[in-house]
Structures
1.
Amino acid sequence: MKGYWLNCEKCNKDYTFKEMTEHTSLTSFLWNEFLDSRCDQSLLTFKCPVCNGLVRITYHFPRAERLTVKVKHIVYRTCDEDFYQMLWETYFIHEPDKPVYDFKYISDCNATGLNRPAIMAEKHLQELVDLFNLKCHKFLK
Ligand SMILES: [Zn+2]
């Protein structure tokens, strides 16, 4: 699949955002639901109607070989209502026990920032890490 989709960890079934949420895309889901939630991590997983497994946001990361990534946590911070910087905790499906981190941004319900790294000042990076530790019970420094 292209872009972002949803995939069951247990039975590997793929879903579109439209099938699992009231939104047609990840951008719409983030902008219209998640970014109003005070980083509610429970919004990021869904229950598979086939096997009751955990369904997660999924995407490809292009390297020499294309790798599939699943999203465990997302936290965000904002300076204004049109621009959010995000820290995503993810994992490659071939190494589920090793977290990897992805920094993205979203601006005005536009998907562009989901495909580019976020750039941020040190204090904003620290804010995101602190928020991540608080919301996800982690100890990143
Ligand atoms: Zn399933």
2.
Amino acid sequence: MVEKAMTIKTMPQEDQLGSGHGACGGCGLSTAVNNVLRILGPDTVVYAPASCLLVFSAAYPISAFKVPFIYSAFENTGAVISGISAGLRKQGKQTYVVGIAGDGGTFDIGLQALAGAAERNDDVLYVCVDNEAYMNTGTQRSGSTPFGAWTTTTPVGSKTQGKRSFKKDMMCVVAGQDVAYAATLSIAHPNDFVKKVEKAKAMRGFRFLHIMTPCTSGWKTDPAVTYDLARLAVETGMWALYEIENGETTVTYRPEEMLPVENYLKLQGRFRHMSKEDIDTLQRWLCKRWDQRYHTDMVSKEEPKGDKELAMCGEETEGL
Ligand SMILES: Cc1ncc(C[n+]2csc(CCOP(=O)(O)OP(=O)(O)O)c2C)c(N)n1
Ligand code: SF4
Ligand SMILES: [Mg+2]
């Protein structure tokens, strides 16, 4: 008999991240982590570096995690989970080892340790909960922050208008190391989410899950629109759902048509200042990405424009 795939309705309901933690109302990150841990179950060890997750769930001496939880330095996720995994395997245990780091701890400062674990194909699950800035320290930009976004280190004023460079393609960086599995997830696509976590759980070797997690505080949004933001991100091309296995990329959800990015931007205070020119620049970058991802022809349907607007470089970067 073929077993039915797990869905958001049939997945385990036992929480491994207890209620009563201190995440903001409408926090996408807490929803994502809660669901990942429900699927991984009680035989799991969690590592989280400095991040919102650490601050809202595990400020010493209390912890909202019901499973063993470890913390060391911000930049160490890849290295620490590799060590925990090696120790447990030596003891003959099959306990799941998961590192859950933010975008700052993954795209920027934790990249070296992540790359080491990926290159060794260590038997760990690495989850990046991506809220597109360094949020717990007061919203500084990261390599994940999108073009145009306000952060405290990409300010808006007469000389500069938010971040001047584009979001880094982290999946490309990780998948370039021939890892066992890499996938992108959205909290607005729960069955796709559950399927990918289940799949990663069943595999061995280095697995990477990249989850977009809207942040009410840093994105300056109404907590009630967290789900809409996650959904619109996919429909506008700001986020795409796919997985990479054995070097093969499979799109797991393809939007029927591309919605204008403005629909997504206008719900968020961090983009409120954006000029028409900057929105057009972002839109064209997205069209290019969309064409590559879904094999369409969005760019040529647009008005012809020079390459300059896509060629953001150091001279034009943000700063004070
Ligand atoms: C080596 C080091 N540099 C800087 C810090 C300060 N710091 C702690 S968390 C953090 C930002 C974390 O951002 P991210 O990983 O995106 O997680 P988020 O807070 O957004 O959840 C920074 C800069 C630190 N703890 N260690
Ligand atoms: S600042 Fe953002 S990511 Fe952090 S707890 Fe609040 S909503 Fe969640
Ligand atoms: Mg972050």
